[in-house]
Amino acid sequence: AGVAAADGMLRRTCCILDNPKHMVPTWPETGARLLVTRFLKSFIQTGCIILLEGGKIFTFQGTEKKCSLKVSLRVHNTQFYWKVATRADLGIADAFIHGDISFVNKNEGLLNLFMIYVANRDLKASVKRGWWTPLLDVLSAKYFIGHVSNRNTLTQARRNISRHYDLVINQ
């Protein structure tokens, strides 16, 4: 209520969460949340990313004025943090596909997230990489090798097609 009153005085819009779901993350998810939030705090130099998790709100806003975009993500499952911590951008995609996160602005949320990412990536291009980037490179390489080694033979492709499509021709 205090945040809503302050936002009203400053003539800013405020979205009150209706019955936020209380989430209790596991220890690995708590550690992953800490890693992800620290990374976002240091990575976001322009734009604003807001994570809405149950009753908690995490805001990551840069001081640069290059990008004025704002995106709000609603975290439905704390596995989101684990996926992002272990698989970086593939983890974000996986979390979105599996419904672990959603965008408050369903029309432009995903686009704004990409644009904020690109704007910050361009700003960080000249900055020295951190100690964790080799670890992320190894994890990304692991998933790439796993993907490449999962060869789809002609027999496997036919089996997949027959399982997913009705191949009976009605005349």
Description:
With 171 residues, the chain is an alpha+beta fold. It has a domain at 20-127: Nonspecific Lipid-transfer Protein, Chain A, CATH 3.30.1050. The protein is built from 6 helices and 4 strands. The protein has helices at 2-9, 27-43, 79-97, 109-124, 133-149, 154-164, and strands spanning 48-53, 56-61, 70-75, 101-103. A 4-stranded mixed beta sheet has the order 2-1-3-4. A hairpin with a 2-residue loop joins strand 1 (48-53) and strand 2. Helix 3 (79-97) crosses helix 5. It is globular, with a radius of gyration of 20 Å. The model has no long low-confidence stretch (mean pLDDT 79). InterPro entries: Arsenite_MeTrfase-like.
**3D shape:** globular
SSE series:
HHEEEHEHHH
- Which band does the percent of strand residues land in? 5-15%
Rg = 20 Å
InterPro entries: Arsenite_MeTrfase-like
Summarize the entry for a quick read.
The protein is an alpha+beta fold and 171 residues long.
Keywords for this structure?
Nonspecific Lipid-transfer Protein, Chain A, about 170 residues, alpha+beta, about 50% helix, 4-stranded mixed β-sheet, Arsenite_MeTrfase-like
